[in-house]
Write the structure tokens for this entry.
Amino acid sequence: MKSAGIIEIYTLERQGCTAADWSTVYLDDNCDLSRIRDCRFSGRVEIGAIAELRSAAIGDCRMNSGVSIVNVRGHLRGLRIGRGVVIADVGTIESEPEASYGIGTEVAVLDETGSRPVHLYPGLSAQLATLMAMHPRWAEEHLLPRLQEKYASRPFPYDLSDGCRVVGCQLLQNVHVGKEVSIEGAKRLVNGAVINNAAPGKGLAGVGADVDAENFLIEDGYAGGGALLRNVYVGQGASLDKGFTAHDSLFFANSAMENGEACAVLAGPYSVSMHKSTLLIGMRTAFFNAGSATNFSNHMYKLGPVHWGTMLRGAKTASGAYVMWGAQIGAFSLVMGPHKYHPDTSMFPFAYLFGDAHGHTLAAPGLMLRSCGLGRDEKKWPIRDRRLRRRLPLHDHVCYDVLNPVTVQAMLRALPLLRDLAHAEPDSHGLVHHGAVAMKPTAALRAHRMYSLAITSYLYSRTHTDGYHLADPNLAPDDWSDLCGQIIPTADIDSILTLDPDLNDPETLPPTLLEKAFAAYPHLELCWVKKLVESEWHDQMRLAPQAVVELEAMIEQDRTLYKQALADHH
């Protein structure tokens, strides 16, 4: 590039352009001056080839070729602009040299007081975020120093990357816009990044009309429809839309939030809330679906908003459900009514949970196992994975199986407890109790049967899986965990937490270790199944085909009854 000469200055001035100092305006040799009109330049400005600049105040900006900037009502300042960028009908876009673009932002998830912070970084996964939140001291001592070192210098080559569009926006301040990202009609974006990791033409990342966001990362996700965001991460395939409000919250793969409100939420893959009257607060979840007017409470007034809870994989709430944290809701359970006494139903997955008029929890474990909707959910999740359709590099590790080592492990541990409850002396209301959870003895007996059928059916299906004959029971993990969508041996989590990561050795980094555990999961699951079949569940496997038929018959009956009810309605 060369600084503007006498002829170039004369031409530009005749076309309505001015400069505080023309010697600091640099032009590409192939720059078409006829396409530059009514512009005001200040500081060092570099203009690439085939650029179109009209009606704009531009200061200290570096532009590549093919840039189109039209009608800037405020100014552009301090920007590095890539090839083919379109900027039109905007207010102000500016960036400071020390801008962090939202990287390192502290997000106070779960506990609003900030005792479990997650720091925002590109490539953040649901699994890594969960480890940060659940083990804050480990994150502070071993993980964050490495991440801070990695992003110590300017993390992006451009503020506005190749092929991106910024149209109809009012303010972008210290915001990175990734390649081919479209930001249209945003109201206010401050200190953040919208990142696209997809192949050309397949991007998901974007921001729509009237969005107001501060301290955020949107990575292969979308925010639109007047969403109001503060200290928020929107992950791959996730979307926040239709006036949704969120602060200090994280939303991972394929989550969808509309209309309602979230505060201090760690929403793992496929978390969904669509209703205006719904408040999600102080919680960790995955595969969650919130009914209308769902309300969670983390404030017990004396201690402040320090309480939080967990909705385990696949839990749902009915309309008007209320849960006071801390509580832990078992996997694939349906929560109905108010629950005020901090129930822990993690040992009773697939339950209907009823809250009575006083907020006590009445459980009917196992009933969800006969629901036809459970199988529908299991099939639809991978089909609706927007990440796979766009061939994204996957950050979140997702296991879609409803019956998996974690849910089966919970049912196995519940069996002796249910047997005891079925034969326990009921209270005056005919109920037996386990902590804050009550149930009828008949419900405990029925749950024991349902769990036995489900366990047997699961084991039978896995013994007929390719590779089962290669499984080695000696390699079977002793315990499993659900790490926000990833089924992983608990020992692998312990290994990650005890290993000091080294940036120079990718093999020691938590993302690498999580990836290895994810890749090893199918084989280790079969090893665990073989050990279980050859030990405590050997006798029951003789009746496995019958158990499969019985469970499938229940599900088919539920489907038939639902279809009939639908037909009668019409």
